[in-house]
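Practice problem 4.
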Protein backbone atom coordinates (compact mmCIF):
# COMPACT_ATOMS: atom_id res chain seq x y z
CA UNK A 1 0.00 0.00 0.00
CA UNK A 2 1.06 3.58 -0.52
CA UNK A 3 1.99 5.43 -3.69
CA UNK A 4 1.05 3.13 -6.55
CA UNK A 5 2.54 5.14 -9.42
CA UNK A 6 3.91 8.61 -10.25
CA UNK A 7 4.05 10.46 -13.58
CA UNK A 8 4.89 14.08 -14.37
CA UNK A 9 5.15 16.42 -17.31
CA UNK A 10 5.49 20.01 -18.54
CA UNK A 11 4.24 22.18 -21.38
CA UNK A 12 4.12 25.74 -22.68
CA UNK A 13 0.53 25.33 -23.82
CA UNK A 14 -2.81 24.25 -22.40
CA UNK A 15 -3.77 21.57 -21.68
CA UNK A 16 -0.88 19.61 -20.21
CA UNK A 17 -1.51 15.93 -21.02
CA UNK A 18 0.05 13.27 -18.80
CA UNK A 19 -0.32 9.59 -19.65
CA UNK A 20 -0.01 7.29 -16.64
CA UNK A 21 2.13 4.19 -17.06
CA UNK A 22 -0.65 1.95 -15.71
CA UNK A 23 -4.45 2.23 -15.63
CA UNK A 24 -5.85 3.67 -12.41
CA UNK A 25 -7.47 1.38 -9.86
CA UNK A 26 -11.07 2.21 -8.98
CA UNK A 27 -11.34 3.58 -5.46
CA UNK A 28 -7.77 4.83 -5.26
CA UNK A 29 -6.90 8.53 -5.01
CA UNK A 30 -5.03 10.82 -7.39
CA UNK A 31 -3.03 13.74 -6.02
CA UNK A 32 -1.95 16.30 -8.62
CA UNK A 33 0.71 18.84 -7.67
CA UNK A 34 0.75 21.55 -10.34
CA UNK A 35 2.44 24.90 -10.98
CA UNK A 36 1.52 27.32 -13.77
CA UNK A 37 3.18 30.61 -14.75
CA UNK A 38 2.87 33.47 -17.22
CA UNK A 39 5.66 35.94 -17.89
CA UNK A 40 3.25 38.88 -17.42
CA UNK A 41 0.62 37.26 -15.18
CA UNK A 42 -0.10 33.67 -14.27
CA UNK A 43 -3.23 31.92 -15.57
CA UNK A 44 -5.86 30.03 -13.56
CA UNK A 45 -5.80 26.24 -13.37
CA UNK A 46 -8.99 24.54 -14.50
CA UNK A 47 -10.36 21.38 -12.90
CA UNK A 48 -8.23 18.45 -14.13
CA UNK A 49 -9.81 15.54 -15.95
CA UNK A 50 -9.21 11.78 -15.83
CA UNK A 51 -10.06 9.89 -18.97
CA UNK A 52 -11.72 13.03 -20.33
CA UNK A 53 -14.08 13.39 -17.35
CA UNK A 54 -13.99 15.67 -14.33
CA UNK A 55 -14.31 12.63 -12.02
CA UNK A 56 -14.14 13.71 -8.33
CA UNK A 57 -11.40 16.33 -8.41
CA UNK A 58 -11.32 19.00 -5.72
CA UNK A 59 -8.78 21.78 -5.23
CA UNK A 60 -7.23 21.33 -1.77
CA UNK A 61 -4.70 24.14 -1.81
CA UNK A 62 -3.50 27.09 -3.87
CA UNK A 63 -0.56 29.44 -3.37
CA UNK A 64 0.85 32.40 -5.28
CA UNK A 65 -0.68 35.62 -6.54
CA UNK A 66 -1.18 35.42 -10.33
CA UNK A 67 -0.48 39.14 -10.73
CA UNK A 68 2.73 39.44 -8.70
CA UNK A 69 4.29 36.04 -7.95
CA UNK A 70 6.39 33.72 -10.09
CA UNK A 71 3.65 31.10 -10.39
CA UNK A 72 0.43 29.71 -9.00
CA UNK A 73 0.97 26.34 -7.31
CA UNK A 74 -2.02 24.12 -6.52
CA UNK A 75 -2.73 20.66 -5.14
CA UNK A 76 -5.75 18.73 -6.43
CA UNK A 77 -7.27 15.46 -5.23
CA UNK A 78 -9.45 12.94 -7.07
CA UNK A 79 -10.99 10.65 -4.45
CA UNK A 80 -12.17 8.10 -5.27
CA UNK A 81 -10.86 7.95 -8.81
CA UNK A 82 -12.37 6.00 -11.68
CA UNK A 83 -10.59 2.80 -12.58
CA UNK A 84 -9.00 1.80 -15.86
CA UNK A 85 -7.87 5.29 -16.93
CA UNK A 86 -4.45 6.58 -18.00
CA UNK A 87 -5.16 10.02 -19.49
CA UNK A 88 -4.79 12.99 -17.14
CA UNK A 89 -5.34 16.49 -18.53
CA UNK A 90 -4.66 19.80 -16.76
CA UNK A 91 -5.77 22.97 -18.52
CA UNK A 92 -5.33 26.65 -17.68
CA UNK A 93 -7.09 29.84 -18.73
CA UNK A 94 -6.32 33.56 -18.64
CA UNK A 95 -2.98 35.05 -17.75
CA UNK A 96 -0.64 36.86 -20.10
CA UNK A 97 2.75 36.41 -21.69
CA UNK A 98 4.56 33.13 -22.35
CA UNK A 99 3.30 30.24 -20.26
CA UNK A 100 4.77 27.23 -18.48
CA UNK A 101 2.90 24.48 -16.66
CA UNK A 102 4.35 21.60 -14.66
CA UNK A 103 2.50 18.81 -12.86
CA UNK A 104 3.12 15.56 -10.99
CA UNK A 105 0.37 12.95 -10.66
CA UNK A 106 0.51 10.52 -7.74
CA UNK A 107 -1.85 7.55 -7.41
CA UNK A 108 -2.31 6.39 -3.80
CA UNK A 109 -4.27 3.50 -2.35
CA UNK A 110 -4.07 4.36 1.34
CA UNK A 111 -5.51 7.85 1.91
CA UNK A 112 -8.07 8.25 4.67
CA UNK A 113 -11.69 8.96 3.77
CA UNK A 114 -11.26 12.68 4.60
CA UNK A 115 -7.50 13.04 4.25
CA UNK A 116 -6.75 16.74 3.68
CA UNK A 117 -4.89 18.13 6.70
CA UNK A 118 -2.13 20.78 6.84
CA UNK A 119 -0.57 23.22 4.36
CA UNK A 120 2.21 25.76 4.09
CA UNK A 121 3.64 27.92 1.31
CA UNK A 122 6.15 30.64 0.62
CA UNK A 123 6.94 33.06 -2.23
CA UNK A 124 10.18 34.92 -2.88
CA UNK A 125 11.37 37.38 -5.50
CA UNK A 126 14.87 35.89 -5.69
CA UNK A 127 16.99 33.51 -3.62
CA UNK A 128 19.28 30.49 -3.91
CA UNK A 129 17.47 28.83 -1.01
CA UNK A 130 13.80 27.92 -1.17
CA UNK A 131 11.32 26.63 1.39
CA UNK A 132 7.61 26.08 1.76
CA UNK A 133 7.99 27.03 5.44
CA UNK A 134 6.59 24.63 8.02
CA UNK A 135 3.03 23.42 8.37
CA UNK A 136 1.34 23.17 11.72
CA UNK A 137 1.85 19.81 13.42
CA UNK A 138 -0.06 17.10 11.59
CA UNK A 139 -3.27 15.76 13.10
CA UNK A 140 -2.06 12.18 13.32
CA UNK A 141 1.11 10.13 13.12
CA UNK A 142 0.61 8.50 9.75
CA UNK A 143 0.40 11.15 7.04
CA UNK A 144 1.79 11.69 3.55
CA UNK A 145 3.27 15.05 2.53
CA UNK A 146 3.43 16.37 -1.02
CA UNK A 147 5.77 19.26 -1.76
CA UNK A 148 6.43 21.40 -4.83
CA UNK A 149 8.66 24.26 -5.92
CA UNK A 150 8.54 26.40 -9.07
CA UNK A 151 11.48 28.66 -9.84
CA UNK A 152 12.18 31.03 -12.71
CA UNK A 153 15.06 33.24 -13.78
CA UNK A 154 16.79 34.52 -16.91
CA UNK A 155 19.75 32.10 -17.10
CA UNK A 156 19.32 28.55 -18.35
CA UNK A 157 20.77 25.50 -16.64
CA UNK A 158 19.56 26.17 -13.10
CA UNK A 159 19.77 23.04 -10.93
CA UNK A 160 17.19 22.37 -8.23
CA UNK A 161 18.24 20.40 -5.17
CA UNK A 162 15.40 19.06 -3.08
CA UNK A 163 15.29 17.96 0.55
CA UNK A 164 17.24 14.87 1.55
CA UNK A 165 15.85 11.46 2.49
CA UNK A 166 13.33 10.45 3.73
CA UNK A 167 11.79 12.83 1.20
CA UNK A 168 11.46 11.16 -2.21
CA UNK A 169 11.97 13.79 -4.91
CA UNK A 170 10.92 13.38 -8.52
CA UNK A 171 13.30 14.40 -11.30
CA UNK A 172 13.69 18.11 -11.93
CA UNK A 173 11.70 19.46 -14.88
CA UNK A 174 12.88 22.49 -16.88
CA UNK A 175 11.31 24.46 -19.72
CA UNK A 176 12.10 27.64 -21.62
CA UNK A 177 9.52 30.35 -20.92
CA UNK A 178 10.15 33.28 -23.24
CA UNK A 179 13.46 34.81 -22.17
CA UNK A 180 13.25 32.95 -18.85
CA UNK A 181 14.14 29.39 -17.87
CA UNK A 182 11.67 27.83 -15.44
CA UNK A 183 12.30 24.81 -13.24
CA UNK A 184 10.11 22.59 -11.07
CA UNK A 185 10.46 19.78 -8.56
CA UNK A 186 8.00 17.82 -6.44
CA UNK A 187 8.43 15.24 -3.70
CA UNK A 188 6.64 13.10 -1.17
CA UNK A 189 7.28 12.10 2.43
CA UNK A 190 5.53 9.59 4.71
CA UNK A 191 5.44 10.65 8.35
CA UNK A 192 5.56 8.12 11.19
CA UNK A 193 4.81 10.57 13.99
CA UNK A 194 2.93 13.88 14.27
CA UNK A 195 5.24 16.58 12.90
CA UNK A 196 5.48 19.90 11.10
CA UNK A 197 6.33 19.32 7.44
CA UNK A 198 8.62 21.50 5.31
CA UNK A 199 9.62 21.13 1.67
CA UNK A 200 12.89 23.00 1.11
CA UNK A 201 16.12 23.04 -0.89
CA UNK A 202 18.36 25.17 -3.08
CA UNK A 203 18.81 26.58 -6.59
CA UNK A 204 22.22 26.73 -8.26
CA UNK A 205 21.52 30.42 -8.97
CA UNK A 206 19.05 32.91 -7.55
CA UNK A 207 15.45 32.26 -8.65
CA UNK A 208 12.05 33.68 -7.97
CA UNK A 209 10.01 30.86 -6.49
CA UNK A 210 6.74 29.59 -5.06
CA UNK A 211 7.03 26.53 -2.77
CA UNK A 212 4.25 24.50 -1.14
CA UNK A 213 3.66 21.49 1.06
CA UNK A 214 0.35 19.74 1.76
CA UNK A 215 -0.24 16.80 4.13
CA UNK A 216 -2.85 14.06 3.89
CA UNK A 217 -3.98 11.62 6.55
CA UNK A 218 -3.49 7.96 5.76
CA UNK A 219 -5.83 5.15 6.75
CA UNK A 220 -6.31 5.25 10.48
CA UNK A 221 -9.45 4.21 12.38
CA UNK A 222 -11.33 6.24 14.95
CA UNK A 223 -10.17 3.81 17.61
CA UNK A 224 -6.56 4.93 17.21
CA UNK A 225 -5.32 8.06 18.91
CA UNK A 226 -3.21 10.61 17.08
CA UNK A 227 -0.21 9.45 19.09
CA UNK A 228 -0.79 5.80 18.35
CA UNK A 229 2.85 5.30 17.46
CA UNK A 230 3.65 5.54 21.14
CA UNK A 231 3.38 2.54 23.45
CA UNK A 232 0.19 2.45 25.49
CA UNK A 233 1.45 -0.04 28.04
CA UNK A 234 4.51 -2.03 29.02
CA UNK A 235 4.86 -5.37 30.67
CA UNK A 236 7.30 -8.14 31.34
CA UNK A 237 7.04 -11.20 29.17
CA UNK A 238 8.85 -14.42 30.08
CA UNK A 239 9.73 -16.89 27.34
CA UNK A 240 10.83 -20.15 28.94
CA UNK A 241 13.64 -18.68 30.98
CA UNK A 242 14.59 -15.96 28.54
CA UNK A 243 12.97 -13.44 30.89
CA UNK A 244 13.18 -10.62 28.41
CA UNK A 245 11.58 -7.30 29.09
CA UNK A 246 9.70 -6.18 25.99
CA UNK A 247 7.60 -3.17 25.28
CA UNK A 248 4.07 -3.91 24.15
CA UNK A 249 2.14 -1.49 22.00
CA UNK A 250 -1.61 -1.97 21.76
CA UNK A 251 -3.49 -0.06 19.05
CA UNK A 252 -7.18 0.31 18.44
CA UNK A 253 -10.20 -1.18 20.08
CA UNK A 254 -12.60 -3.94 19.13
CA UNK A 255 -13.17 -2.05 15.91
CA UNK A 256 -10.69 0.19 14.18
CA UNK A 257 -7.79 0.43 11.80
CA UNK A 258 -4.12 0.32 12.66
CA UNK A 259 -1.48 1.94 10.49
CA UNK A 260 1.94 2.21 12.13
CA UNK A 261 4.79 2.26 9.64
CA UNK A 262 7.51 0.64 11.70
CA UNK A 263 7.01 -1.87 14.52
CA UNK A 264 10.25 -2.40 16.37
CA UNK A 265 9.01 -4.14 19.51
CA UNK A 266 6.42 -6.69 20.54
CA UNK A 267 3.17 -5.50 19.04
CA UNK A 268 -0.39 -6.59 19.61
CA UNK A 269 -2.99 -5.24 17.19
CA UNK A 270 -6.68 -5.81 17.74
CA UNK A 271 -9.22 -4.40 15.31
CA UNK A 272 -12.07 -5.27 13.00
CA UNK A 273 -10.06 -3.82 10.12
CA UNK A 274 -6.29 -3.65 10.10
CA UNK A 275 -4.65 -2.09 7.04
CA UNK A 276 -0.99 -1.43 6.31
CA UNK A 277 0.37 -2.67 9.62
CA UNK A 278 4.04 -1.86 9.62
CA UNK A 279 6.52 -1.56 6.79
CA UNK A 280 9.23 -3.04 8.93
CA UNK A 281 8.31 -5.45 11.69
CA UNK A 282 11.49 -6.32 13.57
CA UNK A 283 10.20 -8.31 16.52
CA UNK A 284 7.26 -10.41 17.63
CA UNK A 285 3.95 -9.15 16.23
CA UNK A 286 0.44 -10.42 16.90
CA UNK A 287 -2.43 -9.16 14.79
CA UNK A 288 -6.04 -10.09 15.56
CA UNK A 289 -8.73 -8.77 13.23
CA UNK A 290 -11.49 -9.80 10.90
CA UNK A 291 -9.71 -8.10 7.98
CA UNK A 292 -5.92 -7.83 7.90
CA UNK A 293 -4.10 -6.46 4.87
CA UNK A 294 -0.55 -5.48 3.95
CA UNK A 295 1.11 -6.69 7.14
CA UNK A 296 4.64 -5.40 6.86
CA UNK A 297 7.00 -5.15 3.94
CA UNK A 298 9.81 -6.69 5.93
CA UNK A 299 9.24 -9.11 8.81
CA UNK A 300 12.39 -10.09 10.68
CA UNK A 301 10.92 -11.68 13.79
CA UNK A 302 8.15 -14.03 14.77
CA UNK A 303 4.80 -12.88 13.44
CA UNK A 304 1.41 -14.33 14.36
CA UNK A 305 -1.62 -13.17 12.42
CA UNK A 306 -5.16 -14.24 13.30
CA UNK A 307 -7.98 -13.05 11.06
CA UNK A 308 -10.74 -14.20 8.79
CA UNK A 309 -9.18 -12.36 5.85
CA UNK A 310 -5.43 -11.89 5.63
CA UNK A 311 -3.64 -10.46 2.58
CA UNK A 312 -0.14 -9.30 1.67
CA UNK A 313 1.73 -10.72 4.66
CA UNK A 314 5.20 -9.27 4.31
CA UNK A 315 7.49 -8.91 1.33
CA UNK A 316 10.53 -10.25 3.11
CA UNK A 317 10.11 -12.81 5.88
CA UNK A 318 13.31 -13.72 7.69
CA UNK A 319 11.86 -15.31 10.83
CA UNK A 320 9.18 -17.79 11.72
CA UNK A 321 5.74 -16.64 10.58
CA UNK A 322 2.42 -18.14 11.63
CA UNK A 323 -0.71 -16.96 9.87
CA UNK A 324 -4.15 -18.18 10.95
CA UNK A 325 -7.17 -17.20 8.87
CA UNK A 326 -9.80 -18.52 6.53
CA UNK A 327 -8.33 -16.54 3.62
CA UNK A 328 -4.61 -15.94 3.29
CA UNK A 329 -3.08 -14.32 0.20
CA UNK A 330 0.35 -13.16 -0.92
CA UNK A 331 2.44 -14.45 1.96
CA UNK A 332 5.80 -12.81 1.46
CA UNK A 333 7.96 -12.31 -1.61
CA UNK A 334 11.11 -13.72 -0.06
CA UNK A 335 10.86 -16.29 2.71
CA UNK A 336 14.14 -17.23 4.35
CA UNK A 337 12.89 -19.24 7.32
CA UNK A 338 10.12 -21.60 8.32
CA UNK A 339 6.61 -20.39 7.52
CA UNK A 340 3.40 -21.94 8.77
CA UNK A 341 0.03 -20.83 7.45
CA UNK A 342 -2.95 -22.44 9.15
CA UNK A 343 -6.55 -21.78 8.20
CA UNK A 344 -9.77 -22.13 10.13
CA UNK A 345 -11.20 -23.89 7.07
CA UNK A 346 -9.66 -27.08 5.69
CA UNK A 347 -11.44 -27.32 2.34
CA UNK A 348 -9.77 -25.71 -0.63
CA UNK A 349 -6.40 -25.52 -2.28
CA UNK A 350 -3.02 -24.01 -1.55
CA UNK A 351 -0.74 -22.49 -4.15
CA UNK A 352 2.98 -22.39 -3.46
CA UNK A 353 4.84 -19.99 -5.70
CA UNK A 354 8.21 -20.30 -4.03
CA UNK A 355 9.77 -20.49 -0.61
CA UNK A 356 13.37 -20.29 0.53
CA UNK A 357 13.04 -22.75 3.36
CA UNK A 358 10.58 -25.20 4.86
CA UNK A 359 6.92 -24.23 4.64
CA UNK A 360 3.76 -25.80 6.02
CA UNK A 361 0.57 -24.40 4.55
CA UNK A 362 -2.95 -25.46 5.50
CA UNK A 363 -5.72 -23.20 4.30
CA UNK A 364 -8.92 -22.72 2.44
CA UNK A 365 -7.37 -20.12 0.16
CA UNK A 366 -3.67 -19.34 0.07
CA UNK A 367 -2.28 -17.48 -2.94
CA UNK A 368 1.03 -16.06 -4.08
CA UNK A 369 3.11 -17.45 -1.24
CA UNK A 370 6.64 -16.15 -1.76
CA UNK A 371 8.51 -15.47 -4.98
CA UNK A 372 12.05 -16.70 -4.35
CA UNK A 373 12.95 -20.33 -3.71
CA UNK A 374 16.16 -22.25 -3.13
CA UNK A 375 15.49 -24.94 -0.56
CA UNK A 376 13.05 -27.51 0.72
CA UNK A 377 9.34 -27.05 0.00
CA UNK A 378 6.58 -28.88 1.84
CA UNK A 379 4.01 -30.74 -0.28
CA UNK A 380 0.95 -28.98 -1.49
CA UNK A 381 -1.92 -29.29 0.99
CA UNK A 382 -5.56 -29.27 -0.09
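Answer key:
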Amino acid sequence: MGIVQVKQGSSNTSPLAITLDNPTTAGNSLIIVVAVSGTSSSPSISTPTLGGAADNFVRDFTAGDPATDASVNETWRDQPCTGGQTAVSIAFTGGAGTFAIFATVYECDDLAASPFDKTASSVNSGSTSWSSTATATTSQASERCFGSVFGTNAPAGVTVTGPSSPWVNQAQLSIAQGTFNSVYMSGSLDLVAPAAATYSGTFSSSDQFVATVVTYKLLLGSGVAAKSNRPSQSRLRHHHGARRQQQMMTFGTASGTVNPLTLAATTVLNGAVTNSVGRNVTATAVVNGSVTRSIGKTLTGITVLNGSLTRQIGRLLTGTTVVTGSTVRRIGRSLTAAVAVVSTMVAGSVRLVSLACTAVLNGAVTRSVGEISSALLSPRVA
